[in-house]
MFS transporter
Amino acid sequence: MATKATSIKLFSISTPQMRAFHLTWMAFFVCFFAWFACAPLMPVIKGEFGLSVAQIANINIAAVAITILVRLVVGPLCDHFGPRKTYTGLLLLGSIPVIGVAFAQSYESFLFFRLGIGAAGASFVITQYHTSVMFAPKVVGTANAAAAGWGNAGGGVAQAVMPLLMTAMVMLGVSEGFGWRAALIVPGVLMIVMAGVYYRYTQDCPQGNFSELRAAGIAIDGGAKKGGWESFKLASANYRVWLLFITYGACFGIEIFIHNIAAIYYVDHFKLTLAQAGMAAGSFGLLALFARALGGWVSDKFAAIGNLNNRVTLLFVLMLGEGAGLLMFANAGTAALAIGAMLVFGLFTHMACGATYAIVPFVDKRALGGVAGIIGAGGNVGAVAAGFLMKGLGNTQQTLSILGIVVAASALCALAARFSSSAVEETAIASKLAA
């Protein structure tokens, strides 16, 4: 019988584990590209619809708000239906508002579709679920972080590519108003294509698909026996889930907040052009290509030379670094200093995200979907809270300064999530057996 992979063979797609690894990060990349495709075009969209600061804040909040609910739902859905069917459904349904936003004719319709697009952000939970059930403890942190990081880079690519795509449309002779709409149809089409590929070439776990395994009376590793609701109840009763919910809100929440405000911040505050702002903002997202994977890899290595609680200590240190870097970014006086500071705190932020989900598979193995879903939703709660803070203050610099302090303080939640000696010993035994 097939078992979890104990190594990551990047240049292979011959096993179901590696096919899932590569296709899940690709699907995540497409979803993140679609999720943040609007953000770098907001200076143009702002002018077309005559948006106020409050309306832009509402749009940024809407972009991440619905993801909270969808992330809570898709984790248990993975336990019930399997990640293959869940991801396929999310890609197909998510493509509707992504394409729909290109046809918005008012602030209200744009806000409605932007809210719907947020569902694509739930792809992260399925990505982490799928790699968690495919890889053994000694490499699961690296697998989770690499898949999430490479997929996350879709947000950075969107920041850099979407303004160029719109410019290309304008150069073909269309108006700027039509150009941004045509550009936004592209990620919606990519989601539909990816849905077909994912359904055709992946399976739920090393042994096969959940529906077939259940029909054959074979126990499934990673899902609650009674399905999605049981998984959610088990996860919600675990205090470590809620501590990591907070820490993930303070790292991934900040990440998606920066994705939404960076381009317009560089345009308004430092007077950069749309293309320059897009490249600057895109550099933050492109850190995910290696930084998130680095966080998971370092977490695996720390656990190997010590124990499970070394993963927790690493997360604490990374979040302190993130908070300090965010304060530097908030107080940068020039565009060059701001970009430098953004890259510093971005490195810590992405690594902290990777380190968080290197811990997730060990929180409660009976309810992996519920755990991944709740903690993932924490990221969006953090982004929504940051959005409301900026709306209330009306000043981006003040908002960033306060967020830096909050992030550093939330690092204490990581320390509070330390595991008991029995859990540490159990994980050490499982790792030896898997090896």
Q: What stands out?
A: The two ends are 16 Å apart (CA to CA). The mean pLDDT is 90. The chain has two domains: 15-205, 226-434.
